[in-house]
Amino acid sequence: MNTRWPLKSEEFIKLLGVEIPVIKAPMAGGPSSPELVAAVSNAGGLGSIGGGYLTPDILEKQIREVKSQTNNPFGVNLFITDPDKEITAPGTNISEKLSSYATELGVELTGQVAPFPDFEKQFEVVLDNKVRVFSFTFGIPEKKYTEELKRNNIFVIGTATSVGEAIALQNAGCDAVVAQGYEAGGHRGSFDVENGLPLVGTIALVPQIADRLNIPVIASGGIMDGRGIYASLSLGASAVQMGTAFLACEEANVNQSWVELLLSSEDVSTVLTNAYTGKFARGIKTRFTSEMQQFEKEIPEYPSQHQHTRELRVKAKELNNSEFMSFWAGQGSAMSRKTSAKGLIEELVKEYIEVSNNMGP
Ligand SMILES: Cc1cc2nc3c(=O)[nH]c(=O)nc-3n(C[C@H](O)[C@H](O)[C@H](O)COP(=O)(O)O)c2cc1C
Q1: Is the CB of 31 under 6 A from ligand 1?
Q2: Is the pTM of this model over 0.90?
Q3: 129 and 88, same structural domain?
Q4: Are 310 and 161 within one domain?
Q5: Number of domains observed in the structure of the chain
Q6: Domain carrying residue 323
Q7: How many alpha carbons fall within 13 Å on the CB side of residue 112?
Q8: H or E stretch including 281?
Q9: pLDDT, tens digit, for every residue of 204-227?
Q10: Would you say the CB of residue 236 lies under 6 angstroms from ligand 1?
């Protein structure tokens, strides 16, 4: 592909060893199948494994699967959370509501806590496998981890939802920062929430972060086509990270209901909700998100709510009941296209070139 990208993007893609400044977002919980990751990397972008919920064994297996399908660089993403955070019981309103849903779905809520994978061991897998890129969300890893990554020549990308978070990530030694706007699908990566959850839109966030950092900025949130890529690079980003756009790709591990909802969605189909996990995330509106909204302020923080709703979500999936499953998606979901990852990347580049030509002198 002989596309001319802005100088900043050219430098960024050279650094990573990829051809185009498009990162397929890491999407934990299934969508980022090894096939999707490899297909994106083979098409010249950077595929990323969403390793947050994966046990070290499965993470290692997925890395091997990706490596067997591509020789190109790819990334692994993990969650930076507090492993000692206590699970708090839901209040009466939440508890009664979840119980009524459990009765409706015919599942018993045992209150059993499913442990999260051990970060240390996940991290070891990342190091042992010498992946090209390590990205993370929900916080800042301790210095010992970033130092170890540097020693292993692994490119480090953090996630910010505000200028303050971006500066903190740069100071912590990140090589680049994802600027995640309000439009973004999935969980907010916010970690500095003392003054409330940052909800800045991508078009306002990217230039403000780009103005303050001296490392590359990766725009993320609501970018679905070549126009979005062009706009992001114009705002000062070196690259984009796109999640929702890849969900309807053939290689994504996404159930049929999810794909149908994406393809039939509209601009107003998504909502920012804490109902499923206790951490705000954007997804397609369901009966569960609508009815739980009244309890927004009472919902226990992540990972407590994640644990309290787990058995409901598992049962809903088993029953293929869309009203209780989470379908993470960004505000651009209506622009989703059902194609292959390679096909999507080719279209994105073509669209980018068209816009560039139209915007030319
Ligand atoms: C289904 C889904 C899962 C996601 N999981 C992760 C994740 O595990 N780690 C992460 O850093 N970001 C995750 N994100 C957020 C993306 O990195 C990115 O910020 C977002 O997809 C950008 O918005 P867009 O979906 O409008 O492209 C996820 C997004 C989606 C849609």
Answers
A1: yes
A2: yes
A3: no
A4: no
A5: 2
A6: 84-114+270-328
A7: 6
A8: strand 281-284
A9: 999 999 999 999 999 999 999 999
A10: no
